[in-house]
């Protein structure tokens, strides 16, 4: 059977035309679930899919500090694990004087799956910031950088066919 949005029992129903205000409210609600006893900096996030679904996340810290996962990656990984691959926006809610941008690790992971996505961030006072991910992560490293020089399309076209060689001497 072909898997579709309507037959998948775990996928939420799409909610199209959600306003920024509604996404911000969802991010603020997700923030309340943060596990941040070490930093005391609770963060909530929402990732919106192109077809109008959204997935929430909060930061989840650990006594082994380096195992902490940010709210943005929790939201993204929840969406990815439901099969989502096309994203429209990320919304972040934190309590800081200026809107909190995603950390460097989250920028890199978001770039992998979202490309140049819209990022909105807000604080409880309603101060809101907005960036494109490309502005936050210039000269991004991605799969294009993993291609060796002799396998780029231009090089491949110029490369002569391999000569037949014998392994016997
Ligand atoms: O955009 C951000 C920035 C920070 N954090 C978390 C990581 C850590 O738990 C705490 C302090 O850095 O906030 C996020 O979840 N998202
Ligand atoms: Zn992060």
Automatic annotation (TrEMBL):
<dbReference type="InterPro" id="IPR002125">
    <property type="entry name" value="CMP_dCMP_dom"/>
</dbReference>
<dbReference type="InterPro" id="IPR050202">
    <property type="entry name" value="Cyt/Deoxycyt_deaminase"/>
</dbReference>
<keyword id="KW-0378">Hydrolase</keyword>
<protein>
    <recommendedName>
        <fullName>Cytidine deaminase</fullName>
        <ecNumber>3.5.4.5</ecNumber>
    </recommendedName>
</protein>
<comment type="similarity">
    <text>Belongs to the cytidine and deoxycytidylate deaminase family.</text>
</comment>
<keyword id="KW-0862">Zinc</keyword>
<comment type="function">
    <text>This enzyme scavenges exogenous and endogenous cytidine and 2'-deoxycytidine for UMP synthesis.</text>
</comment>
<feature type="compositionally biased region" description="Low complexity">
    <location>
        <begin position="151"/>
        <end position="169"/>
    </location>
</feature>
<feature type="domain" description="CMP/dCMP-type deaminase">
    <location>
        <begin position="18"/>
        <end position="144"/>
    </location>
</feature>
<dbReference type="InterPro" id="IPR016192">
    <property type="entry name" value="APOBEC/CMP_deaminase_Zn-bd"/>
</dbReference>
<dbReference type="InterPro" id="IPR016193">
    <property type="entry name" value="Cytidine_deaminase-like"/>
</dbReference>
<dbReference type="InterPro" id="IPR006262">
    <property type="entry name" value="Cyt_deam_tetra"/>
</dbReference>
<dbReference type="GO" id="GO:0004126">
    <property type="term" value="F:cytidine deaminase activity"/>
</dbReference>
<dbReference type="Pfam" id="PF00383">
    <property type="entry name" value="dCMP_cyt_deam_1"/>
</dbReference>
<feature type="region of interest" description="Disordered">
    <location>
        <begin position="145"/>
        <end position="169"/>
    </location>
</feature>
<keyword id="KW-0479">Metal-binding</keyword>
